[in-house]
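Supplementary Text 2. Reproducibility record for the structural model of the 102-residue chain.

All settings were left at their defaults, and a single model was retained for analysis rather than an ensemble. We include the record here because the model underlies the residue-level annotations in Supplementary Table 4.
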Amino acid sequence: MKIPVLIEPIGNDRFRARGVSLGLEAEGHTSEEALERVQEQLRSRLSQGGQLAFVETESREQTGPAEHPLAKFAGCMSDEPLYEDWQAAVAEYRASCDREGA
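Retained model, structure tokens:
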């Protein structure tokens, strides 16, 4: 996947690179007008020395599905003495909510 990156000179031989959100925003009476205004902003920034580049990133297909951030904790409580009692209490509470329509 490629994401856009705007590279701009910021003085003193330094540059700023901004990815994904380029800080360009405009409104218009039509989508075409709003897009034209954003293009004008981009042209202006590019005329001042900015550059637009695309950075190659790995897509999910290349890296595989991401692991859920809490997956490493799955099953960590199974050895706790009160775990079964807690599971039963949760099941009982859910059943009572279903009966009451909550």
